Amino acid sequence: MLLSFAILTKDAAEPLAPIHERNPILLSASSMAEWLDPDNLEDPENTTQDLLNELAEESDQVAAVVESWPVSAEAGNVRNNSPSLIIQLSQ
């Protein structure tokens, strides 16, 4: 067994583009199960690229309903770890 992880990214969805040019693929619960299903690797009707395209499209739908707000620049430093990092800055 090998424990690992991957961050799948894509061109930024419209609502997230002002933040960064790329964003992680945001998975719904059902698409997460589909991505992790090892049977998908053996299904010639559903290649990895087809699945990635489907997930990227759904990710844009998820991004459209994601709530975001500005936070302190401290949140961008991996040495910082505090619940206060997600407090919304005054606008």
- Low-confidence parts: none
Q: Please tell me what the overall shape is.
A: globular
Give the helix/strand class: alpha+beta
The arrangement of helices and strands along the chain is: EEHH
Helix content: 25-40%
End-to-end distance = 48 Å
Strand content: 5-15%
> How many DSSP E strands?
2
Count of discrete structural domains:
1
Task: Outline the biggest β-sheet.
Answer: 2 strands, antiparallel
- Kindly state the mean pLDDT as a whole number? 85
Largest sheet, spatial ordering of strands: 1-2
Rg for CA atoms: 16 Å
Helical stretch count? Answer: 2
Give a quick rundown of the structure.
The protein is α+β, with helices and mostly antiparallel strands.
Task: Please give a handful of descriptors for the protein shown.
globular; alpha+beta; 26% helix; 91 residues; 2 helices
Describe the structure.
The protein is an alpha+beta fold. The chain has one domain (9-86). Helix content is 26%, strand content 7%.
Topology:
Elements: E1 9-11, E2 22-24, H1 29-36, H2 48-63
Antiparallel strand pairs: 1-2
